[in-house]
Design brief:
The chain is an alpha+beta fold and about 375 residues long. The protein has a domain at about 65-200 and about 210-310: Beta-lactamase, CATH 3.40.710. About 30% of the residues lie in helices and about 15% in strands. It is built from 12 helices and 14 strands. It has helices spanning about 15-25, 70-85, 95, 110-115, 135-145, 160-175, 175-190, 220-230, 240-245, 255-270, 280-290, 360-370; strands spanning about 5, 30-35, 40-50, 65, 195, 255, 270-275, 275, 290-295, 300-305, 310, 325-330, 335-340, 345-350. The strands form 4 sheets. It has a 7-stranded antiparallel sheet, with helices on both faces. A 3-stranded antiparallel sheet has the order 4-6-5. Strand 2 (about 30-35) and strand 3 (about 40-50) form a beta hairpin. Helix 1 packs antiparallel against helix 12 (about 360-370) and helix 5 crosses helix 6. The longest helix is centred in the first third of the chain and has 14 residues, at about 70-85. The radius of gyration is 19 Å and the shape is globular.
């Protein structure tokens, strides 16, 4: 592998050792791990290769597809609308989007939708995977779709979450969620993260090495089938360039680890970053507040969900903190906020594992951080 590079003070020597061990054990192609404390990056390690041919080192400007870690970005943007008084967690989605209220969805609230209680994890009826790139067509399908269960239980919405959150955002703000993320947070804070990647940035992207096996979903039910197991369960059938430029706020995010760590530092530091308030402390608490807990109907875990965020309590995948929250992406990426210790962290990589939310490489790194505190 190329050498491990980057910032890692002696206090966190065990983190550098854990990062190197992931490579030495053959678990990585290229990866980056970052930790922000009080909003400042204190760890930023990278190594390996950005391409499968191993000719291009994983560098400071390498962008990585983070798949469902995108949902952490989207959830923060929805929280900003609540903070601005333009959206309420408890209002029905149909108040903003009347056509969504059909098929027994008129009372589904924003917080229920954000916490995966909506019963819309995917589509049972066949369609071309490329239809996911037609936003209007997917929204029309969601308007007509009847929920698979009533609110009170969660069932992870791998892709549809992005269309639901994105349409709520668009109807309140007028801009796409990805555009607002760039204009309101990424550009002012200098964060290299995107939902909808311009063509001019594509040359910086790392190749993705797919996992060796499908994830273990446990006993299969209809919700799991439509969420993950149909031929049209995820976007496909288009060029890689079209995937990268698509604004799907559940799966098409691209980022560097320091950018994600600093974004989550907003949530870890009660809404403040770089001397400016981006969210109120109350909104941060409300976004992370538990909305539902129990056996997820799609993921094979007992889950506790905030408003779009995975709560760490009961899972311990983002360190020991019960109040820590974040999101993970297919293949291993993750971003998290620890409000008790004011830590934001992120791990990105381009060799995917078959783990859904508890990638062993990321857990090893996060545990090494906390062991040094």
């Amino acid at each position: 592998m190329s050498e491990v590079r980057g910032l890692c003070p002696p206090r966190f020597a065990a983190v550098r050792e854990a990062f190197a061990a992931n490579f030495a054990e053959g678990r990585e192609l290229g990866a980056r791990f970052a930790i922000a404390m009080d909003g400042k990056i204190v760890i930023d390690l990278m190594g390996g290769w950005a391409d499968r041919a191993r000719t291009r080192p994983f560098a400071e400007d390498t962008l990585t597809s983070v798949f469902s870690t995108t949902k952490a970005m989207a959830s923060l943007m929805i929280a900003r609308l609540v903070d601005q008084g333009r959206l309420s967690w408890t209002q029905p989605v149909a108040d903003l989007w009347p056509a969504f209220g059909g098929a027994s969805k008129s009372r589904l609230t924003v917080e229920q939708m954000m916490s995966h209680q909506g019963g819309l994890p995917g589509f049972a009826e066949p369609m071309e995977p490329s239809l996911w790139f037609d936003r209007v067509a997917i929204l029309e399908r969601l308007e007509a779709l009847a929920p698979m269960w009533a609110p009170g239980a969660s069932g992870y919405h791998p892709v549809t979450f992005g269309y639901l959150a994105g349409e709520i955002f668009r109807r309140v703000d007028g801009r796409s969620l990805g555009t607002a993320l760039r204009e309101d947070l990424a550009q002012p804070l200098g964060l290299d993260l995107w939902i909808g990647l311009p063509d001019a940035e594509h040359h910086r992207c790392a190749d993705v090495q797919r996992p060796p096996a499908l994830p273990d979903l446990g006993e299969i039910n209809e919700a799991k089938r439509v969420a993950f197991l149909t031929k049209w369960a995820s976007p496909g059938g288009v060029s890689l360039a079209e995937w990268r430029r698509a604004e799907i706020p559940s799966v098409t995010g691209h980022a560097t680890a320091p950018a994600l760590a600093r974004l989550m530092a907003i949530m870890a530091c009660a809404g403040e970053l770089d001397g400016r308030r981006w969210l109120s402390a109350e909104t941060v608490r409300d976004a992370a507040l538990e909305r539902v807990r129990g056996r997820d109907l799609v993921l094979p875990y007992d889950m506790a969900w905030g408003a779009g965020f995975i709560r760490n309590d009961g899972l311990a995948i983002y360190g020991p903190g019960r109040e820590t929250f974040g999101h993970s992406g297919w293949g291993g990426s993750c971003a998290f906020a620890d409000p008790d210790r004011r830590i934001g962290g992120a791990y990105v990589m381009n060799r995917q594992s078959a783990e859904l939310i508890a990638d062993a490489r990321a857990r090893r790194l996060i545990e090494a951080v906390y062991s040094a505190l």
